[in-house]
Amino acid sequence: MAALLFVLAAGLVAMSCVKADRVRGWRESFNPSAPGLPDSAFVAARVVLCGMAGIGVFSAFRFMAVVADAEWSDDELAGAVSQATAELNGTSRFGDLFGDDSRFDAEFATMIEEEVVENGGGGAPQDGVDAGSAPANKPSDADYTVMAAGADASFCVHVERIRSKGGDYEPPGIAGGAGSVTVPNYDFAVTSRRGEC
Question: What pTM was computed for the model?
Answer without folding.
Answer: 0.63
